[in-house]
Amino acid sequence: MQEQDLIQANEALKRSNEALQDLFDNSNDLIFVCALNGKFLFANKVCQKKLGYSASEFQNINVNDLIHPNIKHQTRTNIVRLMRNYSIYKFETALLSKKGKTIYLEGNVSCRFENNKPVAIRGIMYDTT
User: Fold this and answer.
1) Cβ-proximal residues to 76 (8 Å cutoff; 6+ apart), any chain
2) What mean pLDDT is reported for the chain?
3) Which of 31, 32, 50, 113 makes a 20 to 30 Å CA pair with 93?
């Protein structure tokens, strides 16, 4: 591949990434990816705003610390089911915002697998509060 072709390919990839980021940031839904240990790997702007944390704060937050105590067991059970490759039609949970407000969520949460091993939990959820 010639240098000009590489430059054009990089520019096309950059535009594609920018379009995806715009889609994530302008969605009305909370979009996130978490490592199996609960550490947020990605949280879109809506997720940040609804939960009251900045992008930099999300780098140090564990989703397990945000799950409402009354629903923690059920949520963890469902996450284990996802990691065993079960599908959950409507994933429901409740998270606590930075200010302690309960936010009820439902939507699609799934597990990402690599070489048949779970590596991350990803979700697109909406606020039903």
Assistant:
1) 64, 67
2) 87
3) 113
